[in-house]
Design a protein that fits this description.
The chain is 53% helix and 17% strand. The chain has 291 residues and is of the alpha+beta class. The longest helix is centred in the N-terminal third of the chain and has 28 residues, at 16-43.
Length: 291
């Protein structure tokens, strides 16, 4: 595990045309989703429920970031994080824009047409800041008779802003790299071997044996149990020389909930070994995982 050359390494490259398109999609989605998020928050004025809606919104933005990275063939982690920052910031900005229009429209939810028609005014920074400052001074809602304005409202806004920003950024940071073929300019296909293997620890010795003779090493693994076993995933493209193995440990927690963790991530093997594994073990081609 100490030798990084045994594992898949992202190239750091991007596809310029696809990346430009993904940013256009990113801005469009932030514009529309920001509006609907604001409307939902207005319609459900319950602080506790709004907290979970905000988290759900952030998770949704994180999923969008993953989808856009797949679409744009983005193999650059820094670039993916930057896009997550942008979509998080824009989603915050646009949801505030919808809320400002709601307040200045006499507490009437603006139609999406009105929202879009007024963007030319509200996206001007000085107009936006002036409106937010006035709303913060007066306050527009209360809980148990306490009007939220001033520093109290600022704290709520900051917390909401932080969640919507942080979740997609964290999603982009912690996401495991998905193997990509620079030769074929496509993502690898993912296959899962049907057999449940014994959940042994991922030692340096095991990794060395897998790198030298993956078929023999995998054949020697015992059968796991329903409570604890390992699933083996193979990332394979027929016309590539490099293929990759991932070991995923599946285990049951005390409450009966199934959990999983990656113990060997994208270990490189050659084409012939990968082909033999697919021929010997029943397998299923999986969809690209973006969740």
């Amino acid at each position: 595990m100490d030798n990084p050359t045994l594992f898949y390494q992202e190239s750091g490259k991007t596809n310029l045309i696809r990346e430009v398109v993904s940013y256009i999609i990113c801005i469009g989605l932030a514009l529309i989703l920001g509006y609907f998020y604001a409307v939902i928050i207005i319609l459900i004025p319950v602080v506790y429920i709004n907290f979970f809606i905000t988290i759900g919104f952030g998770i949704g933005l994180g999923l969008i970031c993953k989808l856009l990275a797949r679409f744009s063939h983005n193999r650059n982690k820094k670039s993916r994080i930057i896009q997550a920052v942008i979509i998080g910031f824009l989603a915050n900005y646009f949801q505030w824009t919808a809320y400002i229009l709601y307040v200045y429209n006499g507490a009437t939810i603006p139609s999406i047409g009105t929202y879009l028609a007024n963007l030319y005014w509200i996206v001007i920074p000085q107009n936006f800041i002036a409106a937010i400052t006035e709303i913060n001074r007066v306050g527009t809602w209360s809980v148990f008779g306490i009007v939220f304005n001033g520093s109290l409202l600022t704290a709520v806004w900051f917390f909401e802003f932080a969640i919507i920003m942080a979740v997609p950024i964290f999603t982009s940071i912690q996401a495991n790299p998905y193997p990509y073929s620079e030769l074929l300019q496509q993502w690898y296909h993912k296959y899962t071997l049907f057999k449940d293997f014994d959940a042994i620890p991922a030692s340096n010795e095991l990794i060395s044996e897998l790198a030298n003779d993956p078929l023999k090493t995998i054949d020697s693994l015992g059968k796991g149990t329903g409570l604890r076993h390992v699933k083996i995933h193979l990332f394979y493209l027929k016309d590539e020389n490099k293929q990759y193995l991932t070991f995923e440990k599946i285990f049951m927690e005390g409450n009966g909930k199934e959990n999983s963790s990656i113990i060997i991530d994208n270990l490189q093997i050659d084409n012939s070994d990968a082909k033999q594994l697919l021929e010997k073990y029943e397998n299923k081609r999986e969809r690209i995982n973006v969740i």
